[in-house]
Amino acid sequence: MILVALVAAACGGDSGTEPQPQTTLAISAGDAQSGPVGQALASPVVVRVARDGAALAGASVSWSVQSGGGTVSQATSATGADGLASTTWTLGPDAGNNTLQASSSGATGSPVTFTATGEAAGPPPASASVNVGDFFFDPTATTIAVGGQVTWNWSGSAQHNVTFASGANSATQAAGTFSRTFAAAGTFPYQCTLHPSSMQGTITVQ
């Protein structure tokens, strides 16, 4: 009887509790980047969610800008089969530090913080080119420095022109180029007078 009691006591002392799986959140890629202010970073920011070390699919990750005034392409994203979730981070308007936080509910290590540095834009270029295609200008918005020159290059088969409200304009032509130098700062809209609804552009001189 004593032996039976001891065995029963020993069995009763074993709770039989299994260890709980552990979910973790960690930065995978995209931390400590730098880029021009007001523009998207070259690479997405990426986190990895794992359960007991193995990739966890379908986990929800929330993204929140903490400083710098930037934006993200997705405020919430889900992990794929590789356990990775990502978003594109556009930096704020001012040079300096930006921070972004990623979090996943219940995950150890959550939240994690990404940092990035916004760099002031350099001076505008002294020259630029615009493609004159059939019924479009590409790009439609161009920025150059004071005293800079813009060259339009015809690439389509139809006739088009480059016409400003004042100053030099191109001929109506189906091929060739037209160049204009901008001596003063300002914004200069132009159009093709043959196709004004679809062919408009702007030159900004700084």
If you had to describe this structure to a student in words, what would you say it looks like?
The strands form five sheets. This protein has a five-stranded mixed sheet, with no helix packed on it. Strands 1, 3, 4 and 8 form a four-stranded antiparallel sheet that branches. The protein has one helix spanning 2-12; strands at 23-29, 33-36, 45-51, 54-55, 60-67, 71-72, 76-78, 84-87, 89-90, 96-103, 112-119, 127-133, 136-138, 141-144, 149-154, 163-164, 177-181, 186-191, 200-205. The chain is mainly beta and 206 residues long. Mean pLDDT is 92; it is low at 1-13. It contains one helix and 19 strands. The N and C termini lie far apart (99 Å).
Biggest sheet: strand arrangement? 2-11-10-5-7
Question: Averaging pLDDT over every residue, what do you get?
Answer: 92
Q: Percent helix among the residues?
A: under 10%
Shape: elongated
The number of strands is 19
Helix count from the secondary structure assignment? 1
Radius of gyration: 30 Å
- Secondary-structure content class: mainly beta
Strand content: over 45%
Cα end-to-end separation: 99 Å
Q: Helix-strand pattern, N to C?
A: HEEEEEEEEEEEEEEEEEEE
Distinctive features:
elongated, five-stranded mixed beta sheet, 206 residues, mainly beta, 19 strands, single chain, four-stranded antiparallel beta sheet, 1 helix
Helices and strands, with pairings:
Blueprint: H1 2-12, E1 23-29, E2 33-36, E3 45-51, E4 54-55, E5 60-67, E6 71-72, E7 76-78, E8 84-87, E9 89-90, E10 96-103, E11 112-119, E12 127-133, E13 136-138, E14 141-144, E15 149-154, E16 163-164, E17 177-181, E18 186-191, E19 200-205
Parallel strand pairs: 2-11, 12-15, 14-19
Antiparallel strand pairs: 1-3, 3-4, 3-8, 5-7, 5-10, 6-9, 10-11, 12-13, 15-17, 16-18, 18-19
